[in-house]
Structures are given as structure tokens and as C-alpha cells.
Automatic annotation (TrEMBL):
It comes from the Bacteria. This is Ethanolamine utilization protein EutP. It comes from Parageobacillus caldoxylosilyticus NBRC 107762. The keyword GTP-binding does not apply. The lineage of its organism: Bacteria, Bacillati, Bacillota, Bacilli, Bacillales. InterPro entries: AAA+_ATPase, EutP_PduV, P-loop_NTPase. One of its GO terms (biological process) is biogenic amine metabolic process. The gene is eutP.
Length: 148
């Protein structure tokens, strides 16, 4: 059976592509800047600009038609959220929140959770590090349970 896909959104540099690699089992490789939608196996990775400029929201919406799950990324080191309140509910997908870079010395998980909750009022939030791999397996299992 053909598997559904997960669409990953979030601002520039928030760790989307690195997370995508970890989810696909690449434990050490690092990511180059994402210039366009990138399809790899069951993941659709988006450039951070698409989550920072409303001009691209239509593209994200159209791409969502190919996906089943929406992964919304909040960088634990950021003090702002680039997406509008309740953005997740505009997508006909199962949303999952992910707070990345929890290993980082500047990570502020409480603030990140509060920011992510404005975009995703309900739904699971996972806490991950692409450095220590914390939370990656749990997140992967949850995503795959929705995609199969
Ligand atoms: N400390 C730490 N750094 C991370 C983590 N994940 C990603 N990074 C770093 O964050 C930077 C940006 O990572 P990317 O995965 O390219 O970010 P992105 O969201 O794909 O960025 P765009 O493609 O520009 O939208 C890189 O320098 C990564 O090494 C993490 O879990 N912990
Ligand atoms: Mg990227």
C-alpha cells in the first residue's frame, strides 16, 4: 500500500531538514539550506521562507493535499513564532508539534511550548534534538502510526 506523507513546516534554520534526515535514519549527516519543496521517502520538507511569508501559504496548502500529517516546527532557541495563531487548523491534516534543538544551551522549552501552542492549540507536541537524538524515535513512531 502507498504510504501517506508528512509535510514539515517551520521557519528558516529551525532544524526541519536535519530532523527529516534523523527521521529517515541518517544519524550524522547535516542539512544544506532548503531551496524548494524536497521529497524524500515519506517526508516533504519545505523551505523556511514558506512559513515566514504569507505569499507562500497557498503553496503549503496545495502541498498539504499530498500529505496526511503536518509537522509544525518550533525552534527551542527562538523567542518568536513565525506562523499566525491557529495556523494548523487551516490544514486538513493531522497536526503534530515539534520543538527542536532541546540540547542547545539557549533552549527555552517553556517559551517554545507557549509559542507553539498559539499555532497548534491542541494536538501532541514532541521535544527533539537532532544532536542527542532525544525524542526522534518516539516522534517517528507516532508519525508512522498516522501514515500507515
Ligand atoms: N543544537 C542543535 N542544532 C540543530 C539541531 N537541529 C538542527 N540544528 C542546526 O540548525 C541549523 C539549521 O538546520 P536545518 O535543518 O538546515 O534547518 P531548516 O529548518 O531546514 O532551515 P531551512 O532549510 O533554511 O528552512 C543547522 O546549523 C543545524 O545543524 C538540534 O537538534 N540541535
Ligand atoms: Mg531545510
Amino acid at each position: 500500500m502507498k504510504r501517506g506523507k508528512v509535510l514539515i513546516i517551520g521557519p528558516v534554520g529551525s532544524g526541519k531538514s536535519t530532523l527529516a534526515k534523523r527521521l529517515l535514519g541518517e544519524e550524522h549527516s547535516s542539512a544544506k539550506k532548503t531551496q524548494s519543496l524536497e521529497y524524500a521517502n515519506w517526508i516533504i520538507d519545505s523551505p523556511g521562507e514558506y512559513s515566514q511569508n504569507p505569499m507562500y501559504y497557498r503553496t503549503l496548502m496545495a502541498t498539504a493535499l499530498e500529505a496526511k500529517v503536518l509537522l509544525i516546527i518550533q525552534d527551542a532557541t527562538r523567542k518568536d513564532s513565525t506562523l499566525p495563531p491557529n495556523f494548523a487548523s487551516g490544514f486538513p491534516l493531522t497536526p503534530i508539534g515539534v520543538i527542536t534543538k532541546i540540547d542547545h544551551p539557549n533552549a527555552d522549552i517553556e517559551t517554545a511550548t507557549r509559542l507553539l501552542r498559539t499555532v497548534l492549540p491542541i494536538g501532541d507536541i514532541y521535544f527533539t534534538s537532532s544532536v542527542t537524538l532525544a525524542g526522534i524515535m518516539e516522534l517517528k513512531e507516532r508519525i508512522l502510526s498516522y501514515l500507515s
